[in-house]
Structures are given as C-alpha cells and as structure tokens.
Design goal:
The protein is α+β, with helices and mostly antiparallel strands and about 425 residues long. The chain is built from 14 helices and 23 strands. The strands form 6 sheets. A 4-stranded mixed β-sheet has the order 21-22-1-23, with helices on one face. The protein binds ligand EPZ.
Length: about 425
C-alpha cells in the first residue's frame, strides 16, 4: 500500500491550476455513452475513478482515447448493457451508468454498488426515478436487471432527498424519453448544471438545472459534443486548506469561486483573506493563527459541502478556540477523527456532531486514510504537524486528487510518496519522530 511521508512545518506558497471536477467528469462520461456518437471531454482529470469509468465505457463497446486532459469517447460502438460486478465495484458511483444504458439500449444489468467507508450509499431514489420513466427493475441479490422494452416515457418524480446521483441518472435517462419529465427537489450542485450543459450541447432539452425543479423535454436522438468540465471545487478547497493551515498563501488559477461560497465564507470566518477575480483566479492569504469555526453544518448545495467537511476539521484542529461541525449528509463521515486524534487533535463526537478544541500544534504520527476526503484532510494536517507524518492509503486519494503530492511539493511542502515495505519497516515513524 503506498503512503505519503510528510515533514510538517513548511509554509506553502505559490500558484496552482485547479483540476477538472471528478464529480462532473464521471456523469458526463456516462452520459456520452447515451449519445452513441463521438464526444470530446476536456479537462478530464487523471484519477482512478475516471480510469474506472473509462474501463466501463470500453467494456460496453465504446472507443476511448485519452490525450492529456482530453478524453474522446466514441459511443457508436455501444453494444453491451451488462456491467460485470468487478467493474461496478471499482467505482462506487458506477450506478450512474444505469440511466445512459436504459436510454441508449433499453436495457441495463449492473450491480448495486454497495456501501463504502462513508455510508450505506443506498440507491432507492435512483430506482424509483427510473421506474417513474417506465423502467422495470428486478433486484436479485444486489444484481439489478433493468429494462424498458417500449423505451422510456416522460414522468414526474419528487426526490425525497436532493440526491446528486439520482438527479443525474434521471436527467440522462429522461433526455431521450418520450414526452416531458419533471424532477422536483432535484440536486442543485454545480456538477448538475455542468451535466445539463453537456446534455444540451448533445441536443437534449434540459431546463432548470441548478434550481429545485428540472424539466426535461425528451428528444428523438442525441448527437456528440465537445465539452470542458468545470473546475473541481472540492480539490480547490483542499489546496486552499493546505495554504491556510501552514499560514501560507496560494493563487488558484482556473477555479470557480462562485461554486464555493459556503466554504469561502467559513475560511474567511477563520481569518483567511480571500480575493476572487472574475477570470477564475482566487487568492488566499492565511492569518497568523486560524480562528475557530463556530458552526459548520454540511448541507446539500448551496449549503456547506459534505466533501469539504474533513478538510475544515483539519483546520479546526489547530484553530484558536472550539469549532462545532455537524455532518448531515452521510452517516459515517468521521473516519478522519480517530486519525487526527493520533496527531494530538482534541475532538469529541456525539452522533453527527463533532466538537473540535483547537490545539497549538499537532504532532506527526502514522495515520491511515480510509476514504478520499478523510485522506486529504490527514495530509493537510500533516503539513502543519510538528515532525513526520506517514499517511497510508494513498490509493484513496488517487481516486480524487490529481498528482496530489506533486501539487503540494510545488508549493513548498516536504512530501514524498513511498511504497510501504511488507514488514512495515517504518513502524518507528508511528511515533512522529522528529528529524
Ligand atoms: C455525490 O455522491 C458525490 N459523488 C459525493 O462525492 C458527494 O459527497 C455527494 O454527491 C453529496 O454531495 C459523485 O458525484 C461521484 P447523494 P452521491 O445521492 O450521488 C442518500 C466524493 O468524495 N441517498 O447526493 O452518491 C445517501 O445515502 C464523493 O467525491 C439515498 O438515501 O450522493 C446520502 O445520505 C463522496 N438514496 C445522501 O442521499 C439514494 O438512492 C446524499 O447522497 C441516493 C442517495
């Protein structure tokens, strides 16, 4: 298992180009399959989750070519509608292929992705949404057989929760359904708007994305399109947090500050000075010592994003005063708490509420990433910790952070990626030895 070795205490400073959004690229790649034509997707981040999506596209019969940040999907060859379990399990959000396959082929066979480290991740809303469009879905021990022999028809569906994935599946499936579809209580994330823009470029008729009610007029067919994915707002938050916790400063290029209001407001509450420029540049200058974050509560967009909760908790660990963080979206999204405590953090968790008493300084330790965002938070904490921190589980971070250690090292961090010896030779580093 690969690990990061971080020597903390270095102030981060410099410029960073924000990667394309993982959570926008994934649904757009799946939607490209539904066009059964050639689509060119720019700013597609080099991530394990994206690679997994490309493997699924190839398995389904699509041609896939990557040249740098540009991925070309030739979906004319789309012919398979069955995704094997092994491919479904590689990426939790592979359920997003259900809508495209039903739309393009009238049939889909795939597995329920199953839970993950942050929660059970049910898909009931996805299934109800597909059924509202006329799909018949049989769940046999987690293997889903979906069919729409007469094609999908428009429908009306009210989401009991503004699920991002269920909204995306519905948008893609309804794009070519006969008639009008109305999706109420839809997710409003920027990634939803990006998907709608891509679908409309492909000839779809999607209106209201980013608001609570999305209306989709089904069209006969979709054609290929060229599209650049929006910036990754969560990756941007990770880099801002790295600068903030090391009392540094960072200039982000190619960002979308307008997608990050809730997080930027919390960082400013903590004492960071943030300048936004219209062309997607944003500059953060940290303060001498972060102030506490009185109340951070994760909510669906435009509320504070759950994916940024771990990073803000890392900052809260060394802020002056006590911060209260409430995770309302996922039931098990505090995997980073125990690991931060190993670094000297003072955190109390009761149900979904974490109270973080800021300490003057964390100390290095051997810690383990159990999910993508917990892992990046541990790296952020290690950047400011005294001594050496070993973060195991780099595989989680490679799912969502493009060239993470290179990006941090370019800003002055002392971070190296290493394969762990089988006999765990770095055991002595668990004590956060000082060099
Ligand atoms: C997307 O996951 C993102 N993933 C997640 O990012 C993100 O945390 C999440 O949206 C919330 O913003 C991608 O876009 C690939 P949801 P998704 O459906 O679509 C419940 C990351 O780190 N729910 O909005 O799976 C669910 O249990 C990842 O990049 C149902 O009950 O999220 C959860 O409590 C992690 N039934 C809540 O809704 C359903 O059918 C939010 O889930 C679907 C969801």
């Amino acid at each position: 298992m690969a690990q990061y070795i971080i020597q903390g205490g270095r102030r981060l400073e410099g410029e960073h180009w924000v990667q394309g959004a993982k959570n926008s690229a994934l649904p757009i790649l799946a939607a490209a399959a539904a066009t059964k034509s050639q689509c060119v997707i720019h700013r597609c981040p080099a991530l394990k989750d994206v690679d997994a999506a490309l493997r699924i596209l190839r398995w389904l019969g699509c041609g896939v070519r990557r040249e740098g940040g540009t991925v070309t999907v030739d979906a004319a060859g789309l012919s398979h509608s069955r995704i094997p379990e092994v491919l479904m399990r590689e990426m939790r959000s592979s359920i997003i292929f259900m809508g495209p396959l039903l739309s393009a082929l009238g049939h889909a066979e795939l597995s329920a992705p199953g839970g993950c480290e942050i929660g059970l991740r049910p898909i009931n809303l996805h299934l109800e949404a597909m059924r509202a469009l006329g799909a018949e879905i049989v769940d046999e021990g987690g293997r889903l057989s979906c069919s729409a022999a007469k094609g999908l028809h428009g429908g009306r569906y009210i989401l009991s929760f503004p699920s991002v994935g269920a909204t995306e599946n519905m948008m893609i499936a309804a794009a070519r359904a006969r008639g009008t579809t109305t999706l109420t209580n839809a997710a409003r994330e920027p990634e939803i708007v990006d998907l709608a823009n891509f679908l409309n470029r492909c000839g779809a008729n999607v209106r209201g994305a980013g608001e609570g009610v999305i209306t989709i007029e089904g069209v006969e067919s979709l054609h290929g399109a060229e599209h650049a994915v929006i910036p990754d707002r969560i990756a941007a938050v990770t880099m801002l947090s790295a600068a903030a916790i090391t009392r540094g400063e960072i200039l982000l290029r190619g960002a979308a500050p307008g997608h990050m209001d809730a997080v930027l407001s919390v960082l400013e509450q903590g004492g960071c000075r943030i300048r936004r420029a219209p062309d997607g540049e944003m500059h953060l200058r940290a303060c001498a010592r972060l102030r506490h974050f009185p109340t951070v509560r994760t909510m669906p967009y435009p509320g504070f994003p759950t994916d940024a909760q771990a990073a803000i908790m890392a900052l809260a660990c060394v802020a002056e005063g006590a911060s209260m963080i409430t995770e309302t979206i996922f039931e098990n999204r505090y995997n980073h708490v125990g690991e931060l405590r190993r670094m000297g953090a003072s955190i109390r968790v009761e149900d979904r509420v974490a109270v973080v008493e800021g300490v003057a300084c964390l100390h290095g330790a051997g810690v383990e990433a159990r999910d993508l965002r917990a892992g990046t938070a541990l790296v952020v904490a290690g950047l400011a910790a005294e001594g050496r921190t070993r973060v195991r589980g780099v595989c989680h971070m490679e799912r969502g952070c493009e060239r993470f250690e290179e990006a941090l090292a370019a800003l002055g961090a002392d971070i190296n990626r290493m394969e762990e010896d089988s006999d765990g030779k770095e055991a002595n580093e668990d004590k956060g030895e000082k060099k």
